[in-house]
Amino acid sequence: MREPLSYEIAHGAALAALEAGRAEGHKVCAVVVNRSGVTKVLLSDDGVGLLGVETARRKAYTSAVSGVPTAKFAAFAASPQMQVAPPHLVDANLLPVAGGVPIVTADGEVIGAIGVGGADDVTDDRIAHQARDSVAKIVA
Fold first, then answer.
1. Would the CA dihedral through 35, 82, 96, 139 be positive or negative?
2. Within 13 Å and on the Cβ side, how many CA atoms surround 124?
3. pLDDT at residue 2, rounded to an integer
4. Can you tell me the distance from the alpha carbon of 5 to that of 40, in angstroms, rounded to the nearest whole number?
5. Helix/strand/coil for 30
6. What Rg, from alpha-carbon coordinates, does the chain have?
7. What was the pLDDT predicted at 104?
8. What is the pTM of this model?
9. Which end of the chain, N or C, is less surrounded by CB atoms within 10 Å?
10. CA-to-CA dists, residue 42 to 74, 78, 125, 140, angstroms
């Protein structure tokens, strides 16, 4: 097992998300969690409301505990098989909305995740992927 997600990696990913959002004219919140879904870093631009902060946290949590991007989790949650047990009834912290991506080592181990909130889900998802990619070499 690898070292857990370091503060430096978590902070770097969150900062990269804010910078990517700013470059596109968006104010966002980025939350990075460890593999268990516990918050390591939360960075938020001025003007991001509580909804943006909370959705970022829940997207990061969902991606970390499921091990997949939240866009993929959302598709699974919408499938007919899941109508019997919707994710929010299993775990109220799960949020099947795009904008969360796992942080994975080169050998496939999930060590955490980043969630972005504050813009629309497509934008949040793109920014989360950019932020995760910005720390990929460090994580490998």
1. positive
2. 29
3. 54
4. 9
5. strand
6. 14
7. 94
8. 0.94
9. N
10. 23, 29, 17, 23
**Residue stretches of the chain with pLDDT short of 70:** 1-3
Q: Six-digit token pair at 41? A: 């870093």
Reading the block at residue 86, the tokens are 């919707």
The answer to whether the CB of 43 falls within 8 A of the CB of 56 is: no
Asked whether 18 and 30 are in contact (CB, 8 A), the reply is yes
3-state SS, one letter per residue, for 100-137? EEEEECCCCCEEEEEEEECCCHHHHHHHHHHHHHHCHH
Per-residue tokens: 20: 């990517």
Residue 10 has which token pair?
């978590």
Alpha helices (H) in 2-135, listed in sequence order: 7-23, 50-66, 70-77, 87-90, 121-134
